[in-house]
Please model this.
Amino acid sequence: MKSEIIAVGSEMLTPFRQDTNSLYLTEKLNEIGMTVAFKTIVGDRRKDLVGAIRTALARTDILIVMGGLGPTEDDLTREAVAEALSLVLRRDASQVAALHARAATWRMPMPENNLKQADILAGAVILSNPNGSAPGQWLDTTFSGYRKLIMLIPGPPNECRPLFDTECLPRLGAVLPARFIAKRILRAAMIPESQADKLLAPIYTTYTDVETTILAHMGDIQLTLLCSKSSLEAAKQRVDELAGRMEEALDDWLYSSEGESLEQIVLYYLGLRQSTLAVAESCTGGMVSQRITAVPGSSRSFLGGAVVYSNELKTTFADVPPALIERYGAVSSEVATALAEGIRKRTGATLGLAITGIAGPTGGTEGKPVGLVHFAVSDGQKTDIVERNFRGARDRVREWATQQALDLIRRRLM
Amino acid sequence: MKSEIIAVGSEMLTPFRQDTNSLYLTEKLNEIGMTVAFKTIVGDRRKDLVGAIRTALARTDILIVMGGLGPTEDDLTREAVAEALSLVLRRDASQVAALHARAATWRMPMPENNLKQADILAGAVILSNPNGSAPGQWLDTTFSGYRKLIMLIPGPPNECRPLFDTECLPRLGAVLPARFIAKRILRAAMIPESQADKLLAPIYTTYTDVETTILAHMGDIQLTLLCSKSSLEAAKQRVDELAGRMEEALDDWLYSSEGESLEQIVLYYLGLRQSTLAVAESCTGGMVSQRITAVPGSSRSFLGGAVVYSNELKTTFADVPPALIERYGAVSSEVATALAEGIRKRTGATLGLAITGIAGPTGGTEGKPVGLVHFAVSDGQKTDIVERNFRGARDRVREWATQQALDLIRRRLM
Model:
């Protein structure tokens, strides 16, 4: 069965706003074995909306219309669906009462216009929306002689997503043939995309019953495996078998078997080894620390560190001898090593990590071009160093370098 | 004239990929006075694509079809447009030669399939694509008796965007009635959204010929003013007049009159005052440093700083007396003040900035709840302090705190 998502709202036809709910809905639909065939974005114009709804019903079986359910004049989804299907809207007494009760709780006046949120399509089931004033609607109907399922759901993400999960998914599950879905997410770091494809394509292409999606972004590769079968056991067995073969092929590029982020894995290993980490960052300017501290509870293993943007601060905060910088330059494996060891000693951490490089756009030389970055990790006994030459603009160099730094510490801890 | 953008590619119907090119194209279209009425996302299925193209031509005058121009079997845009309009495709000899030349440069073999990229719609103009192998196409034609402009452009952003700018925009400009567009972007920090609206709505609603868009995100408000007139002078005059009134109303909430980011403005003022900055971050964990160092050339005014995640590091890197932390707690205006002054002295910067707070989800107490953040900025003579209580999840608290920290330093420098 084909489905379409229509996102309603003129703001999504500006350069400033994008529909993101549909990514969430698509993930949930895929998990019950449904695919999305079309997405349409349409403004708050009744004629456009009626046309888009009719087009969708002519080409798909399941239609989700998102947004346009509020109380303002611009909110036209109810009226447009009614017109597209030649249905009447009736004002629901229990919904009117609920709107009055809501206004009373908030001590707000209740303009007459607000009551249009209680207008329900003939034959529709009301979908409860605990996070907002406009309920959703579920309609099991026919269009040009074919059965169609239509859902009207509110646009704000904090209303749309829970309502879809609790009110729509179970109803869709009851209509669809019983299917069980197994899902696994594998992640790997710093493996070149072409190499990953060369390693993995011969494997996953033989599993035609498992849908494999590969997403590559700045040194991070995420593989999503999805299998739908008539029993959960059968689905799990296929996904796990394929995951096992891919894990083997990815070898130590693989860092996560259940979708965890690289920084989560680094913190997991730090906890396991009862180790602590401190970071001295030059060109990444705080990005490594920021990714680590984004994980709740990171303070158990992450002490902090220094953003040593100037040469002087490399000395002030990590005791790098000025003569060493003078001799080898700030961007060198020697300075990276001294930085890692210096920040470790200063903070008393088990491990010190250092990043020093040239993010660009200026500052490059023939011998040390923009994109050159040195990394070091030290425990006082042994220092691992890596040198990389990233391509692209400043933000790309910084993002790649952050990923490489986290991967270096992961490999050290593994 | 109404326009529609069709983004072609099954990957954009997964939970993992989103069309972002259309935001760029929309901005460029708006700047020449055109609006986008519909956006459609369709997979790599010929029947779906032909249907989507016909639907678009029936409801709009200008159609941009993006993606599906590559060499693989999945790339069906050329064939689908030909079918939808009953046009023939002819293989263009000069394009075939260009493809061969390209393959030779890259020392790549030239599979027969690749040549389909040289297939041009009858009557179409070839749009040069210096960043990729598939050219774009421009078609000025009729559909059901109405004139239609159709553009086929490649999907990869680094091909799509320059090709659209150099090949499509001038052609659209020549077709459209001569209009001149003036644009201004104003930005303000940390003003509550409702207060901004209360201040600004009475002003901008009286300028019905200027389109004002308000975008609010975590303590940042961006106002885009767009006006289209038959002379550039007239358009500029209206936009500048409205901008002037809004600037006055926003008073010192306003930080940018030309769209610069908050961190750019901070760096601009630091340069103007010949001042340098160092930062000690606790709960923001590197986010302030990261935003500042994202700006090219930031090393001229930004020395660096410390991520003082643990209490010990607040002493190690910024000489905060342990007794002060013991007495007032790490999250206090006293410790924020000591941190700001400590990091300033240690680094030799003109100004020291400090952030200490509770990002959550745990670590809050009744007296010091999750979301409480103290800020301080010091030049050794005078310290400005701010206390804020942000709501929401960890990443929200951190993002708001980062914005507040940058705004505090801006206000100090102004």
Remarks:
- Chain B is about 40% helix and 25% strand.
